[in-house]
Amino acid sequence: MLFSERLKVMRSTLGISQREMAEKLSVSQKSISFWEKGRNEPQGSLIRTLCNEYSISYDWLLDGVGEMLKGQTAPIAPHEELLYIPEYNVELSAGFGAYPEDHALSVGNRPFTASWLKKKGLHAKDLKLVRVAGDSMEPLLKDKDIIMLDTSKTKPNQAMPFAVRLDDELLVKSIQHLGDGNLALVSRNKAYNDILINQTSPPEDFQVIGAVVWHAHSWI
Fold this sequence. Notes:
This protein is an alpha+beta fold. The protein has 2 domains: 3-63, 434 Repressor (Amino-terminal Domain), CATH 1.10.260; 82-216, Umud Fragment, subunit A (Ribbon). It has 6 helices and 9 strands. It has a 7-stranded antiparallel sheet with strand order 3-4-9-5-6-7-8, with no helix packed on it. Strands 1-2 form a two-stranded antiparallel sheet. The two termini are 26 Å apart.
């Protein structure tokens, strides 16, 4: 398979338009079209950027070696036990931590291997899946990324982001202890200001829901 064919396979698999790819690389859509027709190839630096943006193996895209996706693993063995973690649409919700799996905002379940959860010290009963909305945590978490929340971990620390509920709004932030009973909800994107929480007299509608223990990037 030629580079041009691998590029088309990659774009088709990930559901990316030529225009979207061109915008990511700061090139014209015509350039993408030319690459896919085999009329020329991008510079190595652009191939690197392309692989980093879409988690594609550089060796696969350039030479067809190995698997397309970085970190792609072998299929799950038939005997591997699967546990299903509920996923919710919580953009309009409050009190998310109490939602059962059959709640109206449930949008389904995603399978994870029991061995992986055990290795990570996670328990399926404590886990929920939601999607990130907005860019406040970029580049760590991007809009529409799927995150796994461990609702048993509600003591803030700076090692991981946390989901919190504030005034009926669900937020994902890093949490810093400022002393004197104060917390700062911190965005990775510095275009957003910190939100200060006084723990001695917190807002009536403030709750730490759980820690972000895993995330996956979505291409749509």
